[in-house]
Amino acid sequence: MQRSPSPPGVAFGAGAYLIWxxxxxxxxxxxxxxxxxxxxxxxxxxxxxVLIVLAVTGRLRQLRxxxxxxxxxxxxxxxxxxxxxxxxxxxxxxxxxxxxxxxYFINPLVTVAFGVVLFRERxxxxxxxxxxxxxxxxxxxxxxxxxxxxxxxVLACSFATxxxxxxxxxxxxxxxxxxxxIVAAPFALAFVIVLVAMGSSEFTSSPAHFGLMMATGPVxxxxxxxxAVAAQRVPLSTMGILQYLTPGLxxxxxVAVMHEPMPASRWIGFALIWAGLIIFTTDALRRSxxxxxxxxxxxxxx
Length: 302
Prior knowledge:
mainly alpha
Protein backbone atom coordinates (compact mmCIF):
# COMPACT_ATOMS: atom_id res chain seq x y z
CA MET A 1 0.00 0.00 0.00
CA GLN A 2 1.21 3.52 -0.80
CA ARG A 3 1.86 5.49 2.38
CA SER A 4 0.46 8.98 2.79
CA PRO A 5 2.87 11.55 4.22
CA SER A 6 2.16 12.01 7.95
CA PRO A 7 3.24 15.29 9.58
CA PRO A 8 5.33 13.47 12.23
CA GLY A 9 6.96 11.33 9.53
CA VAL A 10 7.84 14.35 7.41
CA ALA A 11 9.19 16.07 10.53
CA PHE A 12 11.44 13.10 11.31
CA GLY A 13 12.69 13.00 7.71
CA ALA A 14 13.29 16.74 7.59
CA GLY A 15 15.09 16.51 10.93
CA ALA A 16 17.44 13.84 9.62
CA TYR A 17 18.31 15.78 6.47
CA LEU A 18 18.66 19.06 8.38
CA ILE A 19 21.16 17.48 10.80
CA TRP A 20 23.13 16.02 7.87
CA UNK A 21 23.01 19.44 6.25
CA UNK A 22 24.62 20.97 9.34
CA UNK A 23 27.44 18.40 9.45
CA UNK A 24 29.99 20.92 8.09
CA UNK A 25 29.46 23.00 11.24
CA UNK A 26 30.26 20.03 13.48
CA UNK A 27 33.03 18.35 11.51
CA UNK A 28 34.68 21.71 10.98
CA UNK A 29 35.33 21.65 14.74
CA UNK A 30 37.43 18.50 14.25
CA UNK A 31 40.01 20.19 12.04
CA UNK A 32 42.57 19.64 14.82
CA UNK A 33 42.78 15.95 13.81
CA UNK A 34 43.52 14.16 10.56
CA UNK A 35 40.54 12.87 8.53
CA UNK A 36 41.74 9.29 9.10
CA UNK A 37 41.71 9.71 12.90
CA UNK A 38 38.27 11.35 12.80
CA UNK A 39 36.86 8.45 10.76
CA UNK A 40 38.43 5.85 13.07
CA UNK A 41 36.98 7.56 16.14
CA UNK A 42 33.61 7.96 14.42
CA UNK A 43 33.46 4.25 13.63
CA UNK A 44 34.28 3.27 17.21
CA UNK A 45 31.96 5.72 18.98
CA UNK A 46 29.07 5.06 16.59
CA UNK A 47 29.44 1.34 17.31
CA UNK A 48 29.46 1.98 21.06
CA UNK A 49 26.27 4.05 20.88
CA VAL A 50 24.40 1.67 18.59
CA LEU A 51 25.32 -1.34 20.76
CA ILE A 52 23.98 0.51 23.80
CA VAL A 53 20.72 1.27 21.96
CA LEU A 54 20.38 -2.37 20.86
CA ALA A 55 21.05 -3.58 24.42
CA VAL A 56 18.50 -1.18 25.95
CA THR A 57 15.84 -2.17 23.40
CA GLY A 58 16.54 -5.88 23.82
CA ARG A 59 17.65 -6.36 20.21
CA LEU A 60 21.29 -7.22 20.78
CA ARG A 61 20.56 -10.90 20.15
CA GLN A 62 19.74 -10.11 16.51
CA LEU A 63 23.47 -9.87 15.82
CA ARG A 64 23.96 -13.54 16.71
CA UNK A 65 21.88 -14.81 13.82
CA UNK A 66 23.79 -13.01 11.05
CA UNK A 67 25.02 -15.46 8.41
CA UNK A 68 28.31 -15.37 6.49
CA UNK A 69 26.81 -13.79 3.35
CA UNK A 70 25.30 -10.97 5.38
CA UNK A 71 28.62 -10.37 7.14
CA UNK A 72 30.31 -10.08 3.73
CA UNK A 73 27.71 -7.55 2.61
CA UNK A 74 28.17 -5.67 5.89
CA UNK A 75 31.91 -5.55 5.18
CA UNK A 76 31.25 -4.11 1.72
CA UNK A 77 28.84 -1.53 3.16
CA UNK A 78 31.35 -0.68 5.88
CA UNK A 79 34.13 -0.11 3.34
CA UNK A 80 31.90 2.13 1.20
CA UNK A 81 30.67 4.29 4.08
CA UNK A 82 34.19 4.56 5.56
CA UNK A 83 35.46 5.92 2.24
CA UNK A 84 32.49 8.30 2.18
CA UNK A 85 33.12 9.52 5.73
CA UNK A 86 36.85 9.98 5.17
CA UNK A 87 36.34 11.93 1.95
CA UNK A 88 33.66 14.10 3.51
CA UNK A 89 35.76 14.97 6.56
CA UNK A 90 38.72 15.72 4.27
CA UNK A 91 36.54 18.01 2.16
CA UNK A 92 35.17 19.92 5.16
CA UNK A 93 38.55 20.28 6.90
CA UNK A 94 40.29 21.49 3.73
CA UNK A 95 37.60 24.03 2.84
CA UNK A 96 35.77 22.20 0.06
CA UNK A 97 32.27 22.17 1.59
CA UNK A 98 30.65 23.30 -1.68
CA UNK A 99 32.26 20.40 -3.52
CA UNK A 100 30.97 18.05 -0.81
CA UNK A 101 27.48 19.46 -1.39
CA UNK A 102 27.93 18.85 -5.12
CA UNK A 103 28.61 15.19 -4.36
CA TYR A 104 25.25 14.76 -2.66
CA PHE A 105 23.45 16.65 -5.42
CA ILE A 106 25.03 14.26 -7.94
CA ASN A 107 24.33 11.14 -5.84
CA PRO A 108 20.77 10.40 -7.16
CA LEU A 109 22.03 10.56 -10.74
CA VAL A 110 24.99 8.29 -9.93
CA THR A 111 22.60 5.80 -8.32
CA VAL A 112 20.55 5.72 -11.54
CA ALA A 113 23.73 5.27 -13.60
CA PHE A 114 24.73 2.34 -11.38
CA GLY A 115 21.34 0.77 -12.04
CA VAL A 116 21.95 0.95 -15.78
CA VAL A 117 25.53 -0.34 -15.67
CA LEU A 118 25.19 -3.02 -12.98
CA PHE A 119 21.59 -4.19 -13.30
CA ARG A 120 20.83 -3.32 -16.95
CA GLU A 121 17.87 -1.21 -15.84
CA ARG A 122 15.97 0.59 -18.59
CA UNK A 123 15.60 4.32 -18.14
CA UNK A 124 12.87 6.66 -19.28
CA UNK A 125 13.69 9.45 -21.71
CA UNK A 126 13.53 11.97 -18.86
CA UNK A 127 16.06 9.97 -16.84
CA UNK A 128 18.46 9.89 -19.78
CA UNK A 129 18.12 13.65 -20.17
CA UNK A 130 18.79 14.11 -16.44
CA UNK A 131 21.92 11.96 -16.68
CA UNK A 132 23.03 14.00 -19.70
CA UNK A 133 22.72 17.22 -17.72
CA UNK A 134 24.76 15.63 -14.92
CA UNK A 135 27.52 14.52 -17.29
CA UNK A 136 27.77 17.96 -18.90
CA UNK A 137 27.86 19.55 -15.44
CA UNK A 138 30.82 17.39 -14.42
CA UNK A 139 32.68 18.46 -17.57
CA UNK A 140 31.94 22.15 -16.87
CA UNK A 141 33.06 21.83 -13.25
CA UNK A 142 36.20 19.97 -14.29
CA UNK A 143 37.14 22.91 -16.49
CA UNK A 144 36.23 25.32 -13.68
CA UNK A 145 38.25 23.55 -10.98
CA UNK A 146 41.10 22.73 -13.33
CA UNK A 147 40.68 19.10 -12.26
CA UNK A 148 37.85 16.60 -11.98
CA UNK A 149 35.69 17.34 -8.90
CA UNK A 150 37.03 14.15 -7.33
CA UNK A 151 35.76 14.91 -3.80
CA UNK A 152 32.22 15.18 -5.15
CA UNK A 153 32.59 12.13 -7.40
CA VAL A 154 34.05 9.93 -4.62
CA LEU A 155 31.28 11.02 -2.22
CA ALA A 156 28.57 10.32 -4.80
CA CYS A 157 29.97 6.95 -5.91
CA SER A 158 30.76 5.70 -2.40
CA PHE A 159 27.32 6.64 -1.07
CA ALA A 160 25.59 5.16 -4.11
CA THR A 161 27.57 1.95 -3.54
CA UNK A 162 26.54 1.98 0.11
CA UNK A 163 22.91 2.40 -0.90
CA UNK A 164 23.10 -0.51 -3.35
CA UNK A 165 24.52 -2.82 -0.68
CA UNK A 166 21.89 -1.70 1.83
CA UNK A 167 19.18 -2.64 -0.66
CA UNK A 168 20.21 -6.30 -0.64
CA UNK A 169 21.44 -6.80 2.92
CA UNK A 170 18.89 -8.54 5.13
CA UNK A 171 19.26 -6.45 8.26
CA UNK A 172 17.21 -3.72 9.87
CA UNK A 173 18.75 -0.27 10.26
CA UNK A 174 20.23 -0.58 13.76
CA UNK A 175 21.60 -4.14 13.50
CA UNK A 176 22.96 -3.21 10.07
CA UNK A 177 24.84 -0.22 11.45
CA UNK A 178 26.14 -2.39 14.29
CA UNK A 179 27.34 -5.10 11.89
CA UNK A 180 29.12 -2.53 9.74
CA UNK A 181 30.79 -1.11 12.84
CA ILE A 182 31.84 -4.53 14.13
CA VAL A 183 33.55 -5.29 10.82
CA ALA A 184 35.41 -1.95 10.76
CA ALA A 185 36.13 -1.67 14.50
CA PRO A 186 39.31 -3.84 14.61
CA PHE A 187 40.94 -1.72 11.90
CA ALA A 188 39.79 1.55 13.48
CA LEU A 189 40.93 0.47 16.95
CA ALA A 190 44.33 -0.68 15.67
CA PHE A 191 44.81 2.67 13.92
CA VAL A 192 43.90 4.62 17.06
CA ILE A 193 46.28 2.52 19.19
CA VAL A 194 49.13 3.13 16.73
CA LEU A 195 48.47 6.88 16.81
CA VAL A 196 48.45 6.91 20.61
CA ALA A 197 51.65 4.85 20.79
CA MET A 198 53.37 7.26 18.37
CA GLY A 199 52.14 10.29 20.29
CA SER A 200 50.28 11.51 17.22
CA SER A 201 46.72 11.12 18.49
CA GLU A 202 44.64 14.24 19.05
CA PHE A 203 42.01 12.20 20.89
CA THR A 204 43.95 12.29 24.15
CA SER A 205 45.49 15.74 23.72
CA SER A 206 42.77 17.64 25.63
CA PRO A 207 39.36 17.09 27.28
CA ALA A 208 37.73 19.19 24.55
CA HIS A 209 39.18 17.01 21.80
CA PHE A 210 38.15 13.89 23.73
CA GLY A 211 34.56 15.16 24.03
CA LEU A 212 34.29 16.15 20.38
CA MET A 213 35.55 12.76 19.24
CA MET A 214 33.07 10.98 21.52
CA ALA A 215 30.27 13.17 20.12
CA THR A 216 30.81 11.72 16.63
CA GLY A 217 28.90 8.63 17.81
CA PRO A 218 25.55 10.20 18.72
CA VAL A 219 25.91 12.84 16.00
CA UNK A 220 26.16 10.01 13.46
CA UNK A 221 23.42 7.82 14.92
CA UNK A 222 20.66 10.36 15.69
CA UNK A 223 19.93 11.36 12.06
CA UNK A 224 20.09 7.69 11.02
CA UNK A 225 17.40 6.86 13.61
CA UNK A 226 15.26 9.80 12.49
CA UNK A 227 15.65 8.65 8.87
CA ALA A 228 14.69 5.06 9.76
CA VAL A 229 11.51 6.26 11.49
CA ALA A 230 10.62 8.59 8.61
CA ALA A 231 11.19 5.90 5.98
CA GLN A 232 8.41 3.83 7.59
CA ARG A 233 5.91 6.71 7.53
CA VAL A 234 6.70 8.73 4.41
CA PRO A 235 6.49 7.74 0.69
CA LEU A 236 9.77 7.40 -1.17
CA SER A 237 8.78 10.28 -3.45
CA THR A 238 8.55 12.61 -0.45
CA MET A 239 11.84 11.35 0.97
CA GLY A 240 13.39 11.90 -2.45
CA ILE A 241 12.47 15.58 -2.31
CA LEU A 242 13.51 16.00 1.33
CA GLN A 243 16.99 14.62 0.56
CA TYR A 244 17.92 17.84 -1.26
CA LEU A 245 17.80 19.69 2.06
CA THR A 246 21.19 18.22 2.97
CA PRO A 247 23.32 19.39 0.02
CA GLY A 248 21.36 22.64 -0.11
CA LEU A 249 22.26 23.51 3.48
CA UNK A 250 25.84 22.37 2.98
CA UNK A 251 26.20 24.60 -0.06
CA UNK A 252 24.79 27.58 1.85
CA UNK A 253 27.29 26.89 4.64
CA UNK A 254 30.19 26.69 2.19
CA VAL A 255 29.27 29.93 0.39
CA ALA A 256 27.85 32.07 3.22
CA VAL A 257 29.94 30.91 6.19
CA MET A 258 33.16 29.54 4.73
CA HIS A 259 33.18 32.12 1.90
CA GLU A 260 34.30 29.56 -0.67
CA PRO A 261 34.69 31.03 -4.18
CA MET A 262 31.76 30.57 -6.58
CA PRO A 263 32.72 31.98 -9.99
CA ALA A 264 30.11 32.14 -12.75
CA SER A 265 31.39 28.94 -14.37
CA ARG A 266 30.82 27.06 -11.10
CA TRP A 267 27.28 28.40 -10.83
CA ILE A 268 26.67 27.18 -14.39
CA GLY A 269 27.84 23.69 -13.40
CA PHE A 270 25.54 23.63 -10.39
CA ALA A 271 22.65 24.99 -12.47
CA LEU A 272 23.07 22.07 -14.88
CA ILE A 273 22.99 19.63 -11.95
CA TRP A 274 19.85 21.26 -10.56
CA ALA A 275 18.18 21.16 -13.99
CA GLY A 276 18.93 17.44 -14.21
CA LEU A 277 17.56 16.87 -10.69
CA ILE A 278 14.36 18.80 -11.48
CA ILE A 279 13.78 16.63 -14.54
CA PHE A 280 14.65 13.46 -12.60
CA THR A 281 12.41 14.31 -9.62
CA THR A 282 9.48 15.45 -11.75
CA ASP A 283 9.64 12.21 -13.73
CA ALA A 284 9.80 10.15 -10.52
CA LEU A 285 6.79 11.96 -9.03
CA ARG A 286 4.80 11.53 -12.26
CA ARG A 287 5.52 7.79 -12.37
CA SER A 288 4.69 7.47 -8.65
CA UNK A 289 1.29 9.11 -9.16
CA UNK A 290 0.64 6.87 -12.17
CA UNK A 291 1.48 3.79 -10.09
CA UNK A 292 -0.85 4.94 -7.28
CA UNK A 293 -3.69 5.47 -9.73
CA UNK A 294 -3.15 2.01 -11.24
CA UNK A 295 -3.18 0.39 -7.81
CA UNK A 296 -6.31 2.28 -6.81
CA UNK A 297 -8.05 1.20 -10.01
CA UNK A 298 -6.99 -2.42 -9.45
CA UNK A 299 -8.25 -2.31 -5.85
CA UNK A 300 -11.58 -0.81 -6.96
CA UNK A 301 -12.20 -3.57 -9.49
CA UNK A 302 -11.03 -6.39 -7.20
